[in-house]
Amino acid sequence: MRINEFNHREPSSLQQDSSSSGIHHQLCPRKSLRRHIMRKIRDSGSPKKCPLNSKPSPFDCSSSLGLLQKRAVLCGVTYSKGKLRLKGTVNDVRNMRDLLINWFGFKPQGVLVLTEEEEDERHIPTRKNIMEALKWLVKGCKNGDSLVFYFSGHGLRSPDFDDDETDGFDETICPVDFQKEGMILDNDINSLIVKPLQKGVTLHAIVDACHSGTILDLEHVYERDFKRWKDNRPPSRVSKATSGGFAICLGACEDNQLASDTSAFTGKTMNGVLTYILTDIVKQKDPRKPLTYGELLDKIYEKIEQVKKKDWLMSTSFLKRFFRDRLSQKPLLSSSEKFEVYKRHFLI
Description:
- This is Metacaspase 1.
- It comes from Melia azedarach.
- This protein is about 25% helix and about 20% strand.
- It has helices at about 35, 60-65, 90-105, 125-140, 180, 185-195, 275-285, 295-310, 315-325; strands at about 5-10, 15, 25-30, 30, 70-75, 110-115, 145-150, 155-160, 170-175, 185, 200-210, 220-225, 230, 245-250, 260, 270, 330-335.
- The strands form 3 sheets. The chain has an 8-stranded mixed beta sheet, sandwiched between helices. A 5-stranded antiparallel beta sheet has the order 2-3-8-9-10. Strands 4-1-15-16 form a 4-stranded antiparallel beta sheet.
- Strand 2 and strand 3 (about 25-30) form a beta hairpin.
- The protein is globular, with a radius of gyration of 19 Å.
């Protein structure tokens, strides 16, 4: 694999102050590795802009058609007007939307997409719009509903001052206007889409960003190496539980890790590693024999190991030293309740 076809989300020396909180954050963008070794960057393989939301907007369909039992919010943030631009996030959203509609039976009017390519201002992934979309997702949720929250973009960590994080940091996602309006913290996401879940409602969150392991602040984290669940309840003992529903999250990496992009899978377009592998695995599986969560997680790990063993970035000793520790990401499974991961099937 050529170096100029691989992007990585890595820590930046740039420190950002959130205007909303004044807290010092360390940004972890999916920065192009080309900037370290090349002066000029050439974009290629980007699909033609095409809005993905149905018309009328899913925001409006919910009132005219009634709430659909399957609803999703898909956010892909490109940060196209700044130096932190990403190339794979819209491709990620396209892949996830295709998976939900063509494999899991979601209707287009039940899939709300937020990207910078959308025409409706309500569909731009600003902080305000993402928050409104999350409210739309869970509004009026009832027994039998299947909800999905998907995010592809930058992720941050922020010092925790509420004593509700076992590692001392809040995890966050970055809207397109985060440098002005601030981040969306895991506390916010938990309050918006986890706590309102009623009995019989299932929420899946898939977050392809740095530091995304416990981005929903769910109370149980699965330790794959030991095949067991770990208690992730806050030291403060504040409740992070649902209102009787079931929430599960798959983060691209552990809270202290980075997530990666690459064009290796297609040879043309950039894609988030987690998103591409996940959608590819599910699409190749016989729908009559769905994978369990444990099987899915194992296959994702296997594929990542295959990617790491390739010599895409290891053609020189310099690159081996420079990037050795930057290619590792371990997707993390968390849940609002413990369950048998090798018995429960991955169904959305």
